[in-house]
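user: can you give me the structure for this one chain? C-alpha cells are fine.
assistant: on it. calling the predictor now.
[tool input]
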Amino acid sequence: MATRSYTSRREAEQYAFHPAVALLIPLVAVVLQATGSKVFPRLALLDLPLIVTIFFAVARRSPVAGTLTGAAIGLFQDAFTNQPIGVNGMAKAVVGYMAANIGVRLDVENTKTRALLVCSFSLVQSILLYLIRSRLLGVQGLQVLWLHELLRAIANAAVAIPVFFVLDRVKRQE
C-alpha cells in the first residue's frame, strides 16, 4: 500500500548548516574577493559573495533567511570596498530574497538550473547596483558596459558550478 506524505516540497528539501560553516564560508568568500581582486585584478570579474549568497538562499528555501543572508554578506563586502556602506547589502538582500523564492518553486539541485540562476542573478545584481548608485546615491554620468556585465555573469556561472559542488558537501537536511 502506498503512503502519501503531506509535507510540502519546501519543507522536505530545506537544508541547514552548522553555525561555523554559515559564518566562515561567507567570511572566506568576502575576504578572497577583497584581497584576491587587489592582487589579481582580473579576479574582480567574479563575485564570490554573490555566489555564496545564492547558494545559501536556495539551500535554505526561506525568503527571510535569504534576505538576511544577502544583506549580511553584502554589508560585510561593503566594509572592504570604497563605496558607501549598504550598496552591496541592498543588492544582495534582494538577490537573496529572489533566489530563496525561486528555490522553493524550482529544482535547484540541477547543474544547469544553478548555472542559469547564477547568471541571471548576476545580471539582476548589476542592474540593482546601477539603480542604487544612479537613483539613490545620485551618481551622475554612471556608465555601465553591459557586454562586460554579461561576460561577468557567464564567468560567475562557470565558477559557481564547482563552488556549489563543494558547498553541497557541508549542507545537512533539517
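assistant: here you go. The longest helix spans residues 111-136. The chain has one domain: 12-168.
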